[in-house]
Amino acid sequence: MNFYKITGFVLVIMSGLIYTLDRGFSLISSSLIKAGFLSGRMTGAIPEVEASGIFSNLFVPFFFFSGVALIIFGIKKK
Description:
Elements: H1 3-39, H2 59-77
Transmembrane segments: 9-33, 53-75
Keywords: Membrane, Transmembrane, Transmembrane helix
């Protein structure tokens, strides 16, 4: 494998890892807010637990599309 393919695969894997960590931490923080609400006086509406989207962290699509472009470039260069 050449440099472009390896770098592309690393960038795609990094984008998936960053997305997974970002989504997990946002779910945990939202769940903590909901748990604090339910253990308190419970006035008002119950907050909704939302996970972050794929475009909320700009590094995820940048790494993903850069990785795919490098993989395609590495395949076409060969």
